Amino acid sequence: MASARKPALKSSKSGNREETQALILSAAEQVFAEFGYKGATTGRIAELAGVPKANLHYYFKTKENLYHQVLEDIVNTWFAAAAEFDSIEDPEEAISHYVRLKLRLSRERPLGSKVFANEIIHGAPNLIGYLRTTLKDWTDAKARVIEQWIAQGRIRPVDPHHLLVMIWATTQTYADFGVQVAAVLGKDDLEDADFETAAETLTRIILRGLLAGAD
Amino acid sequence: MASARKPALKSSKSGNREETQALILSAAEQVFAEFGYKGATTGRIAELAGVPKANLHYYFKTKENLYHQVLEDIVNTWFAAAAEFDSIEDPEEAISHYVRLKLRLSRERPLGSKVFANEIIHGAPNLIGYLRTTLKDWTDAKARVIEQWIAQGRIRPVDPHHLLVMIWATTQTYADFGVQVAAVLGKDDLEDADFETAAETLTRIILRGLLAGAD
DNA sequence: TACCAACTTGACCAATCGGTCAAGCGATGG
DNA sequence: CCATCGCTTGACCGATTGGTCAAGTTGGTA
After folding, report:
1. pLDDT tens digits for range A102-111
2. Which residue in A117, B2, B122, B141 has its CB near the most CB atoms, within 10 A?
3. Would the CB atoms of A198 and B135 count as touching at under 8 Å?
4. Where is the HTH tetR-type domain (chains A, B) (predicted)?
5. Which residues make Cβ contacts (< 8 Å) with residue A96, sequence separation at least 6?
6. pTM confidence score
7. pLDDT (tens digit per residue) in A131-151
8. What domains lie within chain A, and their CATH numbers?
């Protein structure tokens, strides 16, 4: 034998099962982001993934099924990232960190953000339950922390939920509406420097708006 | 004669030409907003407008054509609204007005906002020219005004373009992501009071962030 | 009355798409 | 060597959809 392969359970000829699935999922994210759910075709996804369409349907029973997986992946990524930040206790540091974290996700995973945005814009038919339970709970918990900061006089009084919405909106816009932002900046694409300027501008305005003086 | 009608050019049996076209455009905006370009079907649009599909194609040659009209209507509305604001000269008043204006548009015309958002998310294939010319020019002009404010020490130094992006993002999110916002607020739909709270929160944070003290 | 232009509409078609299927392939184990 | 199992794939199908068409209908006009 030339070498001992390491088949997880069974081996196969080209790549292993998980590799192919990941390839399809990645292609699906890209195509769903670019064309929307209905506009995406399993044929195009398969082509981008480099597999025949029938093979795609071997790993994912239906297009809807595949879409659900893509959505779930994205939501999990975001949620895992959000957890990392939950512990910070100083308002300035916490908000600054969160803004930069979300901005980095917009930079690194814009396609996922677009798929998510698409889903929400169309009424979130597949995520409404998640929004009303998991996301709402997380938001409420975060809002309570913000209210504590307000009660302690550490930040000015603002509506905590709307503050969180504001942070989501301003950071995700650099992924979802990246084309528009780039256009008004006179560029073809957003670069690292633009994200750095965005982070500076956002944190400055929001933090100063929250911290400056007493009420 | 019972009454003298006023046929624009020629009369017809049910409604006049412009009325029917407006009906179709309104239905199209709704269906495009809900299902995206590809997901929208001319059949559904026609049904919602109360005309046979063939009649829809009599007034609008192709689906793409109809979509262009919907987009143009929205862009024109926004641009007309933006012009109304251009003259205000005091930073605080100007920004407060602009935020409330855009928030009102999100409240009153969320479907148009969603169609626009959809188009941008998918790479703005039909609007990239508009973004790079008309919108960029308007943005640059506005940015110059903001830079004057900064030079005059009337607001703190921030990147003017990113400030404008911030205002767009925060206000349009209440239209495009209304379902998500409502969900984390624990409601089924956003109400007038929510838009008022949003306006308060946004203007407070942004204005205080811009105005507070010297640098 | 006769005619015409604008408008309406049901029936229809070609193209696309999601999904199926059966035949085939490669490797493992007996 | 053969049987089996997981995987691959080209060909195919029914359903949907954008768009067409030809036969109407309506109302104004000469």
Report:
1. 999 999 999 9
2. A117
3. no
4. 18-78
5. A203, A207
6. 0.92
7. 999 999 999 999 999 999 999
8. 14-61 (1.10.10.60), 71-211 (1.10.357.10)
